[in-house]
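Hey all, sorry for the wall of text incoming. These are the two entities for the joint prediction.
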Amino acid sequence: NAGVTQTPKFQVLKTGQSMTLQCAQDMNHNSMYWYRQDPGMGLRLIYYSASEGTTDKGEVPNGYNVSRLNKREFSLRLESAAPSQTSVYFCASSATGTDTGELFFGEGSRLTVL
Amino acid sequence: SQKIEQNSEALNIQEGKTATLTCNYTNYSPAYLQWYRQDPGRGPVFLLLIRENEKEKRKERLKVTFDTTLKQSLFHITASQPADSATYLCAPDPPNTGFQKLVFGTGTRLLVSP
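and here's what came out:
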């Protein structure tokens, strides 16, 4: 029972390089999310996808793009990485119509931009 | 803008005591509030949801209160154990977002010593 799987777990980039963080869930959830977590800032929503084929901006979308490839997969792309994007990135998913709105998180991807 | 405050200082308590964590929010009125646990290097894990009309919710050794007048939620762990040591995040749900745009606090680290 994998839940939410993120790859890679660690990545070091140079300023200006691009990369894509991959996320897949096996719980048949409609909604998926990308958060970043920084010391003293808490989890901040970057983008979310309420259902396959839709994406919406969260609190801090600048510098990122997302793709909801299918119901299972939601990727986050950094086109030109900047040191300010050094962070731990979490993907999450949730089912719609539940009583709790519980988010299921992946283990995180730690990104360092030099 | 919406603001969530959790005590940034770690809470140190002895095993067997009750731990009480505070979550204060300003500039909005959430209908729901979630609590998550996060262990070092791991993604957050959902613990409880409380609704604005529920005042108090219990789950095993956990108790959560929700005071919409004070704009505050309290999270209690009774008979605490070293295994309860973790960071606890609160996440009030902004109105009319259907859990799609949860806003997380920075979390409070709890340390339970034997």
